[in-house]
Amino acid sequence: MTLRLVFFLSCAALPSIAQAQSASPQTAPSPWTFHDTIGAPDSLKLRASVRARLESIDGQARPSLNASDTLLDLRTTLFAEYQTGPVRFGAELYDSRAYGGDLKTPIGTNEVNVAELVQAYVAIDFEEPLGKGTKAKLQAGRMALNAGSRRLVSSEDWRNTTNSYTGLRADIVLPKGLSATGFYVQPTIRLPDDKPNLLDNVYRADRESSAVLLWGGLATKANLVGKANAEFSFYHFEEKDSAGRPTRDRRLDTVGGRFYREPALGHADFEVEVFHQSGEISRTLLSSAAKQPVSAQFFHADLGYSFATRWKPRVSARYDVISGDRGGSHYGRFDTLYGMRGAELAPSGLYNTVGRANLISPGLSLELSPNRKNDVYLRYRPLWLASRTDSFSTSNVRDISGKSGNFAGNQVEVRWRRWLIVDALRFEVNGTYLAKGRFLRDAPNSPRTPDTKYGAFNLTAYY
Question: How confident is the model at residue 272 (pLDDT cuts 50, 70, 90)?
């Protein structure tokens, strides 16, 4: 199905969905913010959303998949939180489904997770536990996590499904702009994970496993230099084989630092973040496979300026260097763990070609907010491989000889969002064009398809 037909079908669906909702949504409480309702009367918060996404791709860049494909993704969420004094009980249901695929459509647990309770927690908020100006929070159960820049630990929103985690989390805010967060969790394993059941949108309860563990945290100092903030983070991840689930037995320690200033009208903003990853990984999925030490790196820099004019334009330049594996005694491919993708690098879903691995990419971005109803961005990125013998980013395209070069191509993204009913119904258009470079044209397993064209049309109703 062509992108033009996708657009027609998406627009045809607007009138019926637009009548479904007119109430304002309540923004989800962030896992890393504090509530100011301690001591308030008992209260109940409810929110819900329904999102329909029609996405299509021509010129698929990833091997062993349909050259052209179209999917209808549907996602329904329902969140409830009851607070009595300092104690909160919360739960959230995600129902994520995909329609229109076949065995060569890239459908996985990123697209399908039927009727799953992604949050079920109890939390306690403490006012001034360590004296004036301090706050603390403890949370236990299944929960959402968004840590720091969200590049390593996140609960993805653009994707059709989300990440959830089961365990414990503690947050504290201290005077003078100091804060810290720590957690010890088992990332939820989304099920089912086989293609036939995913294509049929079969329900199977997600589960946690002691074979997968994530713990760590971060510390932040706000306004360290003027309006600039500093952050230090550490994350430990480990996995091992379990029944029916062979793994690479990853044991990874990722340590990093971030220095940044948030965007503000009439001011420059910036961000620099660096991670070093060490540990070990098995060479193959075999239980008898030899272990290999890990040494991988990540670097991100961003410099922008927001103009205090009517359309509030923000222009920015960025640069990412994310290591790939070069062979030898150490494994060098950076692992983004549970980091978000869509908000920074490229769409997931049918596209899913560019992620946080084996990538060197500068970039330019223009963001516009003409009014409360509309916002637009335009992004451009040239794409290189950090290691020409490793697979390019998340494409699975590889030339182990390195003879196909290291230039993957030029990527252009555009997004337009418009509130059809302010705070209740929003329409969104996403488009991505990948002009393939030498590597994606010549690598031995690269599909012999034309340049990649991807489009997605989204309609979301909130309550």
Answer: very high
Where are the extended beta strands (E) located within 165-288? 165-174, 178-187, 212-225, 228-239, 251-261, 267-282
Dihedral angle computed from the Cα positions of residues 370, 463, 121 and 32, in that order, rounded to the nearest 10 degrees: 10
**Helix H or strand E encompassing 4:** helix 3-18
3-class SS of residue 5: helix
Q: What type of residue sits at position 83?
A: Q
The band of 380, judged by pLDDT with boundaries at 50, 70 and 90, is: very high
Whether the bond between 192 and the residue before it is cis, its omega within 30 degrees of 0, is: yes
Query: Is residue 405 over pLDDT 70?
Result: yes
Q: What is the DSSP letter of 8?
A: H
In the chain the domains, ranked by start, together with CATH numbers, are 3-462 (2.40.160.100)
Cα Rg for the chain, rounded, in angstroms? Answer: 22
User: In terms of Cα–Cα distance, which of 232, 228, 281 is closest to 258?
Assistant: 232
User: For residue 117, which of 188, 29, 213 has the smallest C-alpha distance?
Assistant: 188
Could you tell me which residues come within 8 angstroms of residue 41 by beta carbon, excluding any fewer than 6 positions away?
none
Judging by DSSP bridges, how do beta strands 314-322 and 165-174 pair with one another?
unpaired
Torsion of Cα atoms, 67 then 72 then 76 then 77, to 10°: 20
pLDDT at 36 over 70: no
